[in-house]
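Objective 1b: paired records.
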Amino acid sequence: MEFRRNLLAALLASATIMPMYGDNIKDNVTLPEMGTITGRITDADRQVLPGATITIDELHTGVTSDVNGFYTLANLKPGTYKVKVSYVGYEPKYYTVKLTGNNIERNIQLSESHELKEVVVTGAFYGQRKALQMQKETMGVTNVVSADQVGKFPDSNIGDALKRINGINVQYDQGEARFGQVRGTSADLTSVTVNGNRIPSAEGDTRNVQLDLIPADMVQTIEVNKVVTSDMDGDAIGGEINLVTKNTPSHRVLNFNVGSGYTWVSGKPQLDLGATWGDRFFNHKFGIMAAASYQYAPGGSDNTEFEYEENDDKQIELKEAQVRQYYVTRERQSYSLALDYKFNPQHKISFKGMYNRRSDWENRYRISYKKLNSKAEKQSIVMQTKAGASDTKNARLELQQTMDYTLDGEHLFGNLKMDWAASFSRAIEERPNERYASYKYNNKNAKINFGEGFEDVGDRQPYYAASLPALDDNNWKLDELDNANQDIVENEWKGRLNFTLPITNGLYGNTLKFGAKYTSKEKTRTKSFFDYDPEEVLGDSWRNLTVQQIRDGFMPGSQYPANSPFISKQTLGKIDFSKYEGTENYEEEAGNYKIREQITAGYLRFDQKLGKRLFATLGLRVERTDLRTSGFNVEVTDDESTMKPTGDFKNHYTDLLPSLLLKYKYSDDSSLRASVTKTISRPKYSALIANKTFNISDEEATIGDPNTKPAKAVNVDLSIDHYFKSVGLVSLGLFYKDIKNVNVEWSSNKYLGSDLGLTGDNAEKQFKVEQNINAYDARVLGVEVAYQRDFGFISPSLKCLGFYGNYTYTHSTTRNFNERLGIKEGDDVKVAGSPEHTANASMFFEKSGISLRLSYNLASAFIDQMSTSRALDRYYDKVGYLDLNASYTWGKKTKFTVYANANNLLNQPLRYYQGEKNRTMQVEYYGVRLNAGVKINL
C-alpha cells in the first residue's frame, strides 16, 4: 500500500506543480502564450482516418491522428502556419492556420488521389489502407487489421480473424479459434485487451479471454503490438492483441447484416444478425455509436482420443481409448456502446462499454475402453452421456460472459495533456446442472481382453475390431450418475492517469509522457459435485431409456461403432435430484479457489526526434504485484474423502521494465525499426493455488504452488518495411526473446508418494502428477516476412488482382531445466506452444463490386505439454485451413452486399499426438461450414 500511495502522490504533485511552475515563469518573464491546433481527419464519406500524418514543415514538427482520427498539434507560438495532412491513397491537403495564442479546432476532409496515377485507390487493398497507414506511423512493430479487411475474410469471431496476421497462430475449440499465440510463444504469454484494457477470462485456469466470445463484426480495428512501450502493460512477452471497438462516428451511420449457414455435423440452419447505428447531436458535441451482433449456430464434432503410458521396460502401451460424438449449439451475443461529449477543443469525456455472451449447449456421447494394458478382468467399456436439465435444452449449458465499461477523459491545460480512465471488467462462466450418466461392462466374469482386440495401436486411428457386447448382456451395469454446478467469476477494477508534455518542437523536438495505473482483480471458482445411486434413480429398466448415437458418416472412420446405445439426454433432463440423497465428490471440487491480485504500475516515456528522419523512445515501467490465494487440499481413498482449506497464501514481487525503441525513416514510405524491451508474464491462476489433490485409489495427484515465478523476457526486434503508393507493403523482421522461468503444464506418470509428502503405505506408491511448473529458460529466434500488393504495377488491367502473404519462422532452444522434467543429454526440447512455421496466403479479385478471396493458413506442430518421458510429451499437430468467400456490392448512397463463405474446405481436424506424429492422442473433425447473407449500409 505504501508503494501505491507514494506513486499516486508523486503523480498528483506533478500534475499540480507543472501548471504552477508555468505560471511562475509567466510572472517573471514575458513569454508568448502558446497555442494548440486540434481536430479530426475524415475522408469524403466522412469515415475517420486513423494514423494520418499532420505536419508543419517549417517547424519540423508533426503528429499522427489516433485510432479515432483525432489529432493535437501543441506547443505552438502565435503565428501563421501551413499545415500538411497526408494519408496513403489520398491527395495531401494543405491549410493555413493563424494562431494568436488561442486554441483552434480544424477538422479536415481528404479526397481520394484520382490524379496521381501511381496511387491505386480501388482494387484488392482499398479497405486495408487505413490499417497500413497506422502500421506505418507506429514506433514499434505493430500489425493492424481494419474492420473493412476483416469483412473480406469468412471469419465469424475475432480469433479466426487473427490467424490472418503475420506471426499469429491460433488454437481451436469446436472448430473456432479460441486462443491466439504471437511469435512462437504460448497463448499465456500474450495479453488480450479491449480498447487498451486487459479483460478477464471466463475460464478457471487461464488469464486470457476466449477470442471466440467476440464476433468479428464488433470491432473497428485489431492491433497486434509485438513491441510494447512503457505506457502499455508489461504483461506481454508475446505481445498485445488490442481490440478497438466501434467508436463514435463523425456522421450518421446505419448498417444491417442478415445471414444463415450450415455445418456437416448438425445439418441444421444457422442464423447471423448484426446492426450498427451512430450519429452526432447538439452541434456535433455529443456522439453515440451502438452495435449489436447475434449468431446462432448448431454444430458439433466427431472425436476419438487415446492415452498411452510407458511400462517398466520403457515400452509404450495403449492405456485407454475413447470414441466421442459431440452436438453443440452455440449462441453468441455481443453489444457495444460508445458515447462522447466534447465541451470544447480542449476538454472531452467518453464512455465505452462492451458486453459479450456465449452460450454452448452441449451433448456428448462417449465410449471409453479402459485399462487396456491391464489384465482382462480389470478392463472395461463405459458408455457415458453428458447432458443437462430440461430448462437448458437437456444439454450441458456453458454460459460465458465478459463485459468491460470504461469512462475516460482528455484535457488540455496549455501544453500539458492529461488523460484519465476508470473501468470495471467482469468475466463469468456458469455451468448449471451439468449431468453425467453411464453404464459399464463388468469384465470380471467375461474376461474379454479388449486390449488385444485393438488394431493399429500406435498409429493414427486405433480401433476395437470386434463389436460391442449386446445391450442385453447381463455384464452391463449402471456405473455413475452425477450432477454438478460450477460458477467462475472474475472482477477487475482499473484506474489510470497519464500526462503528456511537449517540451520542444523542431528537428530535435521531444515529448515527455508519464503516468500510473492501478488494477485490482478478484477471481473465484466454485463447483459443487454430487454422485447419486444410478440404480435408485434410473431403476432396473434403464436399458429402455437408451437411444442410438454415434452418427453415420463419423469422420474419424467407419471402423468405429456407429448407432451405439446411450442413456438419452431426455432421461437425464427430467430428473429432479432434490428427491434423492447424493454424496459430495470432493475430488471434483478440489479446484475451487479464491484469488486476489493487485498490480500498481508507474512509468516514464521520453520521445526524442534526432533530426528529420531518426526518432527514439526511451521508457521505464515499474510494476508491483501483490497476490493472495486460497484453495483446498483433498485426499480420496477407497474408504473416505477429506477436503480441507489451505488457508491464505501471500506473495509479492516488483519488476523494472525498461525499453528503448528507434525508428529511422530512410524515405517517406520506408522505415527501419530497432528495439530492446523487457516484459513479463504472470502464471495462470490455477498454478498459483497452494492446493494438493490426491486420489489414492487411482494413484493420481494435482498440485499448485503460489510461489510459481512469473516468466520474464528480454526482447530484441529489428525490422524494415516499405509501403507502396498503390496501397500495399513489403516487410522483413527479426526478433529474439530470452525468457526466464517459462511456465509449462507438466505431467508425470510415475512419481513416488514420498516425494509428494505422503507417508506410510502411500509413500511407495507411484502417482500420476499434473502441475504447472517453472520448467526451463528459453531462447526464441524468429524471422517474419510479409508482402501484400495488387498486381497493378505489372499492368493497370491487373489492379483488380492482389496477393496477401506472410510467413514466420521460429527457432527455439531451452536450458536450465527443472529436474522433474527428466531431460537427458541430447534431448532436443522446444519451447511449449511454439510452432516452427506459420504462414498465410490469400489471392484476391475485386472489380465492379465483385470480390473473391481464396485464403490458406498454415501452422506446424509444436509441443503443448511435457512429461517425464519424451515419448509421452503432448504435441499439437500441424494444421492447414483453406477458406473461400465471395461478395457483390452495389449502390451509391445506400450500399447492398450479398456474400457467401465456405470455411475449412480441407476438413482440417484438431489433432494432438504423444511423442511420435503417428501416435494420435486426440483427433476431432468439424467438417465444412457454409454461410451466406446480405449487408445493407444506409
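Objective 1b, second protein:
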Amino acid sequence: MDTSNWVLQFLGRLHPLFVHFPIGLLVVALLLEFLTIGGKRKGLREGINWMVYIGAGFAIFSALFGWFLKTQDDYSGDLVDNHQYTGIATAVLGLVTAIILKNSIKKAKLNLKVYRFMLFATVVLLTIAGHLGANLTHGEDYLTAILPGNKEVYSNKESGALLSELKGTSELSELQKDKLSLEVRGLFAHKCYQCHSENKQKGELILEHKEGVFKGGKSGLAVVAGKPEESEIYKRIILPADNKKVMPTKGKLLTADEIALVKLWITEGAHWSDQAVKVFPEAPLALITPKLPSVTKEEHPIDKLIDAYFTKNNLDWQEVIDDRTFVRRIYMDVIGLLPNIDEVTTFLNDKNENKREVLIDKLLNDNKNYTQHWLTFWNDLLRNDHSSAGGKRPITSWLYASLISNKSYDDIVRELVNPVKGSGGFIRGVEWRGVVNASQRKEMQAAQNIGQSLMGVNVKCASCHNSFISNLTLDQAYGFATIFSDSILELNRCDKPIGKMAKPNFLYPELGSVEGKTVKDRLLKLSEVMVQRENGRLYRTLANRFWSKLMGRGIVMPLDEMDNTPWDAEVLDWLAADFVDNGSDLKHLIKRIVTSKAYQQPMINYDKIEETKVNYVFKGPISRRLSAEQFSDAVSQVVSPMYPDVAFNPNGENIDAKRIWHKEIKFNRVVLPEPGKRYFRKSFNLQSLNVESAKVLISVDYSYQLFINGQKVLENNNWKEVGKIDISTYLVTGKNTIAVVGENDGTIANPAGILFALKIKLASGKVLQINSDTTWKSVDVLPQSNWTAIHFNDAKWLEVRDYGTRNFNNWGKLLNFTFKDQEEKFARASLVKQHPFMKALGRPSREIVTTSREEQATLLQALELTNGAFFNGVLEEGAQLWLETYATDTDKMTNDLYLKALGRHPSKVEKEVMLTVLGANPEKEQLQDIFWAVLMSPEFQFID
C-alpha cells in the first residue's frame, strides 16, 4: 500500500531547486568576505550579511525538503544517509553562523573572527554535502568517469553476439548459463547501479549482488525465475521512454538486444554464476609468447614486432641516431651519468660494427654506477626512502645489495612479499599519526603497495568500496589485506563496519591458495603464488615500466592500470615472456630494449602532452627530461659536487664517530650553538711507539685547526672536505692529546659539529681507534696559551654534546670519511636524503608508491633554477674551482665545458658568445653565467 503523502512528495521534489540557493549565496558570501579582511571594502558588509541570512534560511529549507524527498520517494542506502547527515549539519552550521554574525554586528566593536571561521566551516561542509548529492544524482563516478583511462568501456556488441549464440539453442549448457548470467550482471552494473546499489537503494532494490536481485524491492519481486512477465525488472525495462516507471530512469534505455538478453536469462531460470562479473576489461593472466613475424628484414625480436606494427599503421622506420647522440643516451639511461670526454672520443673512433652492443654490455657490467642509477627507480616504486617514517623502515641496504648482485626479479619479489632481513619495510607500511580510516591500516597498505607496484592494479579504490575503475571488490581487497594481518579483518565500506569478516585470498585466486594458520605461512604461500609464469601480470607490469623508463611512454598507460589496452599487446607479451625465459634477469630486460632499433630511433617531440595519452601511436622514443637525480649528478660531473654527504654510503666503513660540539645550555635546556670558537680536547695512552700508521679523518662544520700534542697539523674551513693526515711522527709514548679549535660560522645560532676518527695500526697488528664521542671535553672561552699541550689540566672542562643523533642530526655521511683507499669525486644523488633542490625538481617524498614523475617543468623548478640560493651556491663553488684549474685560458675553458656537458665542441657562434661573456680575465660571476646558460639549454636538460 502506498503510504506517501502527495503534498510532502511534491515538496520533496523541490529539494533540487532550493538546494542551489545556499550553495550560491554562501559560497559568494565567503569569497566577498575574504575581500573585506583588514577592514577593506566596507561597502560590501551589508550585502554579505543578507547573503548569509538568506543562504542559511534556504539551507534549512533544503534540508527539510531533502528529508521529505528521502522519506516519500523511496531513497535509501549509505550514500543517501551520508548526504542527509551532511545536509542537516550544513543547515545547523549555517544557522549558527547567521546568529553569530547578527550578534557580532550588534557589538560596539566589530569582531568577525569567530563568524568568519564558522562561515568557512559551513562552506566546507556544504561542499561535501553537494558532492555527495551530485553522486546521488549523476552517479558516484560522475567526476572520475571523464578522466583519461576511465572512459565508459561497456559496449552492447557483446550482448548482441551472445544473444545470437544462444538463440535457437534448445538447452543451455552450464558454461552458456554462466556467460549469460555474467553478461546480464554486467548490464546491471553499467545501466542500473547508479540507482540500485548498496550505496543508493532506490525503491529498496539492490542489483549489486544475488541477495538483492532475488529479494526485490518495494514494488515486488524484481526477478521471478522462469517468468519474465511476472518479473518487475522486465516489466519496467520494456516500458516506453515517456513512462515514469521505465527503467533505467537515467541514461540511455536498454537496446532491443539487451532487453532480449534479460528476458532470456529470466526465462532460463535466472541462473546466478558464482564467477565474479567482469564489468571492466581485464588483461589475461596467462603469458603466452607471441610468434615473431617471419616476413620482415629486421633481425632484433622487438624490431620484428615493431616492423609489423609500423606496416599496420602506415609508418616508416627512421635512420637510427648517430654515435654521438647514442653514447650520451645510453650512458644516461643505463648508469645515469654523462660520458666523459675520453669515453666519447674512444667510442666515436671505434670502427667495430658491433660497438654499440659492446658499450651496452660494458655499462651494464659497471655494477656500482648501474646500481646507484637504478636505485632511484626502485626507491620510487617501492616507496623506499633513506630514513624511517611512521615506523616504516628503509630497505636500502637490501635493495642496493640486490641490484649490485643482479638478483633475479623473481627473488626480489619473493623477498619483498615474504620478507628476509632488510626487506620488511616494503610491506610494513606507515603508521600515520592520529585516527586513520580503515583503508589506511598497515595491512591494507601492504595490499595496496603490492597491487600497485608489482601487479599494476589499483587496490586503493576497492579498499573503501567496490572499485569504480576496475573489477576489484571490497571483499577481494580485504581478503588480500588479511594475508598480512595476525587477526581477522572486518570489512569496512566507506569506513563503516558491515559485519562481514574477510577470508585470506590473493587478488587472482585462480593462481593458487594463500591460506595458512599464521601470517608467516600466508606470506610464504603468497610469494609462491605470485612468482610463477602463470602470473603474466607480474612480468608484464615490470616490462611495461622498463619500456616507459627507457622509451618515455609505456606500452600500457597509465603504468598502474595494466588492464588498459596496450598499443601493441604482442610487443608487451613477447618482452615479458622473454624476461621470464631468461631467468627474470633485470639487466637482460634492459639490454633487450636498448639494443633494439626501436630504442635507437630519433626522439619524437609532441606539441601537446595529450597526443601521448589519447589515440597514441608509437613512432619512436619520446624526448625525456633529466630526472632530479640525473640533473644533479650531471651538474656534479660538469661544474662542482652538489651534495657533500649521503644518507646511505655503500662504500663506507662502520666508523662509530659522532658529530660533537660544546654543550650549549640556555634556560636549563640544550640549544643550538651560537656562532664563535669552541675548544676541544681528547687524551689517550699509547704504550709503544712501534706504530705502522696513525691516520686521521676530520671534518668540522664550519672550520677547524687540529693540534696533536701541541703541534698544529691540519686546518680547513670547508666542512664538506674530509681532512686526512698520518700523524705517526707526532705521537709519543704514554699520554697523547688531540686538541681542536672549532669555529661555528653565521650570525645566529645554528648546527655545528666535529667529526673525527683516528686509526692507529701497531706493528703487532693491533688496531687502536679514537673517535669523536661524548668522552671529549670542551670550553667556550679561550683557555691558557698552552691548552693544546699534553699535560694541560682540563678537569674543569665540560663533556661535549652529541649533535649527530636524535633531534640534532643535521648531517649525512661524508662520502670520503673512510680509511679505505678511495676518493669518490662526488656523491650520487640517489644516495642523498631528500633535499629541497631535488624535491623542487620532482623527486617524490616516497610516503606513497610513485611509479612515474611529472615530465613537464613547473614554476617551482623554474624559480629554483633561476634564483635558488642552493643552485647558485653550487655554480659559485664550481666557478672558483674552474678558475683555479684554467686561470685565464678561456678558450680551453669553453671547449671543455661543452665537451663535458654536451659531449661536443661549441659551434663558432656559441664560442664567440662565450668568449665575449668571459672576457680576457674572467671573474666568478662571468663563469657562473656561462655555466647557467649551458645547463639550462634543452640539449643538456633532455635525453635526446
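The chain is about 40% helix and 10% strand. The longest strand covers residues 676-686.
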